[in-house]
Amino acid sequence: MTQLPEFYQELVTSVKSAFPENVIEVTFYQGDVLLLVNQDQIHEVLTFLKNEHRFLYFCDMVAADRFTSEDRFEVIYNIISLKSQKRLFVKTRCSEENPTLPTVVDIWPAANWHEREAYDMFGIRFSNHPDLRRLFLPEDFEYYPLRKEFPLLGIPGSLQLPTTTPDSKV
Amino acid sequence: MQASTKIVEKGQPLFFKEHQDKLYKSLEDKHTTIEVSEDDPLGTRMILNMGPQHPATHGVLRVLLELDGEIIIKNRLDVGYLHRGVEKIAENKTYQEFMPYTDRMDYLSPYASNVALCLAVEKLANIEVPERAQYIRMIGSELARISSHLLWLGAMIMDSGAISMFIWTFRERETIYDIFDKLAGHRFTVSHSRIGGVANDASDEVLKMIKDFVVNLKSEINGWKKLMNKNRIFFDRNNGIGVITADQAISLGLTGASLRATGIAYDVRKFAPYLKYDQVDFEVPTRLEGDNLARYYVRIEEMEQAIRIVEQCLEKIPSGPIRVNNAKKAYPSKDEVYYSMEGLIHDFMMTDTGVCPPAGVECFHSIEASKGELGYYIQSDGTGHPWRLKIKSPSLGNLQVLEHVLDGQMVADTVVLIGGLDPVMGDADK
Lengths: 170, 430
Fold this sequence. Notes:
heterodimer; A: 170 residues; alpha/beta; 5-stranded mixed sheet; 22% helix; B: 430 residues; alpha+beta; 8 strands
C-alpha cells in the first residue's frame, strides 16, 4: 500500500489507539482514505471522529449490496472536516439476517434522509432513527429495489397504479 | 366542526393507502412536545397539500403543511415522484452508456453532471485527460452553472411576483442553448463529455460565440442588479425569510450557494480542485445573513465569477488532442474508425465493454455543480459495469433542510423558499 499522507496517518493512529480492536482495515486508493470499522463500535468511532477530529460536515452516505453470504450489506459514511479541509470515508458492514445498524442522526442530523434512502433501497434498518419511513418509494411497496436479486424490469403488480377512469378497475 | 379529529382519520386516501397513512402520521408525530389544541372554534387549523403538480414547487415536490391560519406549524416533504432508479440502471450499463442518464438527473445543468460522472470514472480507472479537453469541460461546466442560475433567477423572481425577469433570463439561456448546439450537437441534454476526453473539439466559431455571450451577459447582469437589488417589493419579500444559521447549515448538510449564503465558504472547486480550477483566478462569494436575499446575492455573484472563469479559460485554452490516445481507455477518433480496421474494432470494444477499472476498488469524486456538491461514489468489480454507483445529489440534501426551515414561516413564503433553495427534482429523486 502506498504511504498515507501525513494528516491521515496521524488520524488513523489516533483512531486505532482509541479503538484498537475495531478498526479492521485501512484502504487508500486515488487519494481516498477508507476505514473499515467493526459494526459494534461504529457509533462510538463516528462520535469520536466528530468530537476529537472535527468531522462536522456529513456529506453523504452510501449503502451497497455485496451479495456475499457473510456481512452482505455495507454502509459508507462520507464525512468532511472543514477545519483541516479533508474528507474521510468510514465503512461498516451488517449481515443479511439482521440488517440493523445504529443511527447516526444523533451525531449528524443530515444523515436523516440518507438513512431513509438506505432503508428504502436495501432494507437496512437503523435503530433509534426518529422517522424511519421509505424515502422515494411508497410504503405499500414491499421490495428493496437496489438489492442485487431485484430484477431490473421490476416486479409486475407490485405497485398499485392510478385508475384511468373513475369506474374502471385498472 | 370536526376540528378535534386526528389528522390520520381526516385524510382518507384513495391511493397508496399505507404510504399516505404513514406520511400523515409522521406529520402528527413531529415535535410531539407541542400539544395541538383540542378546541378550534374558528377552524383555522388545516392540512394543506401542496403539489406534486403545483407550478411553484419546481417539479414534482409534494409539501404537506399543517397550518394555523397562515402560519406553518409543521410540515413534511414527500419526494420520489420522479424516481426512475438511475442507480439500478447504472449497474446494468457500461460507464459510457450511463452518461445520457446523468443529463436527465440535474436537467438544468446537464453538462456539469456529465463531467462529474466522467471525472469519477477517470479517477477510478486512472485515466489522464488531455489539457484542451479539461478546458473545454471547464467552459461547459461554467456555462451550465450560468444557465442553471439564470433559470433559478427568473423562476425565483417570478415566485416573488415579477414576471418580466423570467423572459429576460430565458433570452440569455437561449444563447447558451445555441452555444451547446454548436459545441455538442445538442441544445439541452448535451452528453458531450466522454470518458477520457470530450466528444468533439470546440471550433473557433464556438469560442467566439462564448466570448460574445459572456461580454453581453456581464452588462445584462448589471442591468438586472440595478432593477432588483434596490427593488422595494423584491427586497421586502426576501429579506429575513427562511434564515438558516451557519451551525444549522453544517449540521443539516446544506450545500452549494445556500450554504455559502450562511457564511461557510465551502466550495469543492477550492476544497479539492479538479480539472484546471487551480490554474484560474476566482473568488467564492459568501454572505452572512443566511436568508433568501443572501442566497440571491450569492448566486448573482457566482454568475459573475463564472464569467471570470470562462474568460480566463478562453485565454488559456491550448491546442492539442481532445481525447486520450489509448484504445483501452477512450473512444478512438471517427477518422480512425472509418479508415482503419483496428479503429473500428476498438470502437466496437469500447461500446460493448468500455473502460474496465481494476477489480475491488472504490472511490468518490465530486464537483461543484450549480446546485452544490455533486458526487459519484463508484465500486468496481473489474468489469465494464459499476458494481454500485451512488450519486450524491445536492438537491436531496437541500430539500432536507427545507423541512426544517419551513416551520414557523408564512404559507405564502413556501414558494419563495423553495425557489430560494433551488432544488431540481430530477436530481433529488434519482
